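User: Hello! I'm new to structural biology and keep hearing that structure can be predicted from sequence alone. Could you demonstrate with Elongation factor P? Please show me the input and the output so I can see what each looks like.

Assistant: Of course. The first part below is the input, the amino acid sequence of Elongation factor P. The second part is the output, the predicted structure written as tokens.
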Amino acid sequence: MAGMAATFSVSSASPILSRPSPLSSLSFSSKSFILPMRSFNRGPLSHRFPRIMAFSSNDIKVGSNIEVDGAPWRVIEFLHVKPGKGAAFVRTKMRNYLTGNTVEKTFRAGSTISEAAIYKETKQFTYKDGAQFVFMDLTTYEETRVNESQIGEKSKWLKEGMDCNLLLWNDRLFDVEIPITVKLTVVNVDPGLKGDTAQGGGTKPATLDTGAVVFVPLFINIGDEVLVDTRTGQYMNRA
């Protein structure tokens, strides 16, 4: 556009931090769902969550975690704009960590922005208790309970002993990250036919040991272990 010059920058760096702690090293909802945890002496909160840092809007990049209007946001697009007249600014597209909403917001170039302190803790899924999934810190044996409704569709891929990342902001758990690839066992499927091979075409539904149903090649049988992409729910290959 005449009279304006723009530069576009992209970075894949992610500022999500793995919290250094003596205890242990994931659809979003706007509702808090912190549930009672087993009591442990975890130390002062100020030691567990460092002071939120401020940085300039000129430092915004894809993946930046910023705090705006009392909520944590992740920058998914940005554009530095320097008009022919007037002050320079940064145009962004941001996703709210808590609600999943995406908005566009403009910041004056050089303005101060607070960083959102997003942390993740790796914990192991140990068992399901009614409508709750129980995750354990393998160092302290502290249990964290998360409602099935908050995990959503991800719950069908959870298997006991699986390591997951619990994402937190201001000591508030808001999401659970599961592995991208999981190995599960086929517990129910129509038997394969003679001559079926990995190169053959066609698929059939198979029930896995977590209860999930995926379409697998015709040669897959009960007892086979398969790899599944949890992002798409699709069969990848036989384990």
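User: So the tokens describe the shape?

Assistant: Right, they're a compact way of writing down the 3D structure. Reading them back into a model, for example: Confidence is low (pLDDT under 50) at residues 1-15, 20-51.
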